[in-house]
Amino acid sequence: MSQNTLTLKPGKPWPLGATLCEEGVNFAVYSEHAETMLLAVFDGSDHEIESAVALPARTGFVWHGFLPNARAGLRYGFRVAGPFDLARGLRFNPSKLLLDPYAKAIAGELTWDDSVYDHMYDHAGHPVRNQMDSAASVPRSVVVDTSFDWQGDRAPRHTAAETIVYECHVRGLTKLHPSVPEPVRGTYAGLAELAMIDHFTSLGVTAVELLPVHHFIDDAFLVEQGLRNYWGYNTIGFFAPMSRYSSSGDDGGQVREFKEMVRTLHSHGIEVILDVVYNHTAEGGKDGPTLSFRGLDNSVYYRRPPDRPGDYENYSGTGNSLNTHHPAVIGLVMDSLRYWVQEMHVDGFRFDLATSLGRDENGFETWSRLFAAMYQDPVLRDVKLIAEPWDVGPDGYQVGAFGSHWHEWNDHFRDTMRSFWLGHRATLGGFALRLAGSADLFDRPGRGPLSTVNFVTCHDGFTLTDLVSYNQKHNEANGEENRDGSDHNLGFNFGVEGPTDDPEIRDARYRARRNLIGTLLLSHGVPMMLGGDELSNTQEGNNNAYCQDNEIGWLQWELDERAQEFLAFVRHILSIRNSHPALRPVRYVESEHPALHEPGMVTWKDADGSELLPGEWAREDPRLLMVTIDPAPTLTAQERSAVLIMINASNDDAEFHVPKLARNGSTAWTVELDTDQVSGISSVVLHGGRTVTIPSCSILMATA
Predict the structure, then answer these.
(1) pTM, rounded to two decimals
(2) Rounded CA gap, 485 and 606, in Å?
(3) Domain final residue pick, 142, 162, 188
(4) Which residues of the chain are modeled with pLDDT < 50?
(5) Res 637: pLDDT
(6) From 388, 466, 533, 606, the catalytic residue
(7) Helix, strand, coil share (%) of the chain residues, nearest 5
(8) Which CATH number is 119's domain given?
(9) Quick one: angle between helices 327-342 and 369-376, nearest 10?
(10) Catalytic annotation present for 388
């Protein structure tokens, strides 16, 4: 390729994006309404080479061209000429340099200045095309050599019943870790360091779920305040790993480093799940920047009200919604998902505001066009699909309405367990439903208790430590006068807001945390832990740390004695879950509770050993409950350990009548978990037919 001239050949329309071969690079991009598609290429000093050159060929709606002698690391973008009419949703402006939607890597940062907007307003308030060139202010797409030695990498492919999800942030996880080398802290490489592998394996988690790693940008209003979009729910590149998390530069090194991270985690049996944001893009509402999709073909890539084509449907609350009932956009999402599975070897996805992706013309559909495409795709058949089953649009709350192949975040579980243990309104029946896999929500054809993803905390809200330390959010550092973040906290501070040296309050808080995490890991379904909860991590009461790329959002690894004890407790309860199939059923089991099904496996009792009458399921106090889980006879003798769980969520000690195991008349139960103990460990043996005192606000779990 000569220094100052671009000569393009027709090339091929597929695959979309920039495809490297020995002879050069093929470029292909989709646009239905463009009149000319121009390729802009940048030299080693990041200066545009001559003028952008038109892609010489078009097949259907795909524009394409081949650049001979081009190599990996080449930076490029597109300029698109066509009609500009905001009222009709036509927003072509060749002065805007656009990212390739299929770019495998993105380099550089966005500079928020007037040039990044495709229109301005005249003195009469009418929008006019903005002729300022944006090239100096926007990121570049990068040609990537995707070859990589996977060294025989094999996906762990843990079953849903085996899965324990650990939700974490690539940067925040290791930014302060003293055993991670400083040059790789906060990066993909840092996450794969031996110190982190040891932590994951000693905990017993099977999958890390990474907050968004698709390339994103920082919002203008955050940049103005000296903040950043820390969480990353502001995607602009659905194929490109975020360069901010790379210790290997942004010219393609981020792709290699991500693959190395996955390869290392897989070698230790740990799956990688990505939190993905296909519901909207970083271009925002009608006055947002023009960075990629808007300038390529606004009317194709975004949903627009039929009576207001110049505006946007906004099911995400961020200004736009991706048009996932258009074939080209369905293709974009599907190609992205397949790329991350086939090329990057990830093991699953958690879909942010997934209801938005299931919206066709008439609202949410279990088998929307996109969901149907995902279901039949052979590449996606073996990976985990997790829905956040709501959005902010009409009828957006769809918990339990997804297809048989989905797992769903279960906020009913979160709210019920918080209420039960922190003294808010809660019933025995509600608690039992959540403990036994939320059959009221997921007992549908093809579904079961593993359809629910149970959690008591997640990135969006209080940490576990803050949940028992604050009644109110404290988001002042976010710069919005504490107006942001949810007011629906269900937290409890035990009489003192924030940290305290009062030993009684500290003990009560630790006990509450042991009960919450214990209940999570004893419940049927797929458990998800918030990374850092096991470390007693705090965000100082901030329940919306999305913009806190600092010590508020980063995990603290220097643990005092009490924090070390709690970490040991979490490891203990995780080992219990991993040891007992009775805690991980794949089907609902029958019991006296009217919503639960499969003969003779679960028995619910009051503390005195009597069966709970139908009216008692609505009881709020006393919060005393006993459940016996007897595994299916198809399991091996070792797997068939029966489980007894005795729950005292009242404020007083209570006498429990220890049951005999109906299967074999066994009278001996070995206690494996006692949340009244700091360690959670107990070696007490209980005998059926006798009574045992369960201390207030605690759980006793035993096996036979």
Answers:
(1) 0.96
(2) 39
(3) 142
(4) 1-3, 592-600
(5) 59
(6) 388
(7) 25, 20, 55
(8) 2.60.40.10
(9) 30
(10) yes
